[in-house]
Amino acid sequence: MYRFLLSRQWVILTLVALLLIPTMIRLGFWQMHRYEERTARNQLVSDALHATPVPVERMTSPGHTVSRDERYRRVTATGTFDTAHEVVVRRRVNSDEEVGFHVLTPLVLTDGKVLMVNRGWIPADGPSQTAFPKIPAPPAGKVTVTGRLMPDETTAASGIKNLQGLPDRQIMLINSEREAERLGAEVLGGYIAQTAPEPKGDTPEPIGTPGDEDAALNYAYAIQWWLFAAGVPVGWFVLVRRERRDRAAAAVAQDRREEAPAPV
């Protein structure tokens, strides 16, 4: 009654089932790996955001590349804002997905080095975004700011193309090396997203805190793939039983037709 398993149809079906099981198991392990990565990233961000702020000079220096472990670290810096060399970063959105600019202002530290400070988001004056927008001035004189340390932006990491021929004092990516060339000064690696002091009138709009990645979703996907893998042999066995039952019923019906008396 199980000879049908050697038919072309059932051989193909069995091979497909045997291929699906390890594939689904591997996909489950891949999702679990993603779950562990995201959990570790969330913990790293949480630790950085809740750590006691330290002087920015302890975390970065001219030419320094901000590492993954240093990202979002809370730092403080004391200096004077250089609004004459302020620029805006194009095509940035706020929490409401409105397109505007990020305001990037050099902060000249007490030792003469420069820290690039992202003071927040402002709306664009019009759809063309060619004119330099009106920007609320930062506090005058010496000021101490607090912010989250961020790495230099790149096209590979952000997906933003570094376009050429932009309007005056507008850039696409925040990069400390390019800013050092533009300013002719020693610029600390990376930049900070300012969190304090808060701007007067809520402009520029502060940049939101990075959110947690949904690691639980990857965990659920891993369990789902493993359940699918376990379900494949169960489904194959059910199909085999049904096929055997149907063939047995067909054989019994055939025997009855053959034993029935011929019509007169």
UniProtKB/TrEMBL annotation:
InterPro entries: Surf1/Shy1, Surf1/Surf4
Entry superkingdom: Bacteria
Pfam families named in the record: SURF1 (PF02104)
Gene Ontology cellular-component annotations: plasma membrane
Record's bilayer topology term: Multi-pass membrane protein
Keywords for the protein's UniProt record, in alphabetical order: Cell membrane, Membrane, Transmembrane, Transmembrane helix
Membrane spanning residue stretches: 219-239
Localization in the cell: Cell membrane; Membrane
Family, as annotated: Belongs to the SURF1 family.
Name of the featured protein: SURF1-like protein
